[in-house]
Amino acid sequence: MIPMRILFCFAYFSLVQLAACSTNVRPIVRITSDEIAQLGPYSHAVAVGDLVFVSGMIAYKKESGFALAEIEPQTRQAFSNLSSALDASGVTLSDVIKVTVYLKSPDDMKVMNDVYLEYFPNDLPARTTVPGANWGRDDILIEIDAIAVRQRK
């Protein structure tokens, strides 16, 4: 049988260790941007510590609705919305470390890449591109989500 004093010491040090770990837990901050239409039950971005997770942005402009059903203007509007969500989170496109692009048609890859390089001309983030996405609408051709990291100064 283990003496009570040893069990107490073990329990005490376990609690101290747990408390020390819990001081490193950072709050989850849900972020919305007034510049982006709220089209569903989600946050535009969520920040945890130094990481910012941006929800998928489509080519919908708050004032005028969907961009033309062509990949170039839709890619530009999706990036505009992405930039607005990043700005509301205190980061920019230069802080993005991972991007996922969902395309309705794989044929749109070249035009999307050309526009993409305008927004990420130098330090390219990691990226996954998923062709064949179907939102059940003909007017949505692209969706872009991202992960950014706040740079410590």
Topology:
Elements: H1 4-22, E1 28-31, E2 45-48, E3 51-57, E4 60-61, E5 65-66, H2 71-88, E6 96-103, H3 109-119, E7 126-131, E8 142-149
Helix pairs in contact: 2-3
Descriptive tags:
153 residues; alpha+beta; two-stranded antiparallel ribbon; 3 helices
Summarize the structure.
The chain is of the alpha+beta class and 153 residues long. The chain contains three helices and eight strands; from the N terminus they run αβββββαβαββ.
Largest sheet: 6 strands, mixed
The secondary-structure element order is HEEEEEHEHEE
Strand order of the largest sheet: 1-2-3-8-6-7
Give the fraction of residues assigned to helices: 25-40%
- The unreliable regions are 6-23
CA(first)-CA(last) distance: 54 Å
Count of distinct strands = 8
Strand content bin: 25-35%
Rg over CA atoms, rounded to whole Å, is: 21 Å
Instruction: Give the mean pLDDT.
Output: 86
Report the total helices: 3
Q: Outline, from the CA principal axes?
A: globular
Structural class: alpha+beta
Please give a structural write-up:
This protein has 153 residues and is α+β, with helices and mostly antiparallel strands. It has helices spanning 4-22, 71-88, 109-119, and strands spanning 28-31, 45-48, 51-57, 60-61, 65-66, 96-103, 126-131, 142-149. The strands form two sheets. It has a six-stranded mixed sheet, covered by helices on one side. Helix 2 runs parallel beside helix 3 (109-119). The longest helix has 19 residues, at 4-22. The chain is globular. Mean pLDDT is 86; it is low at 6-23.
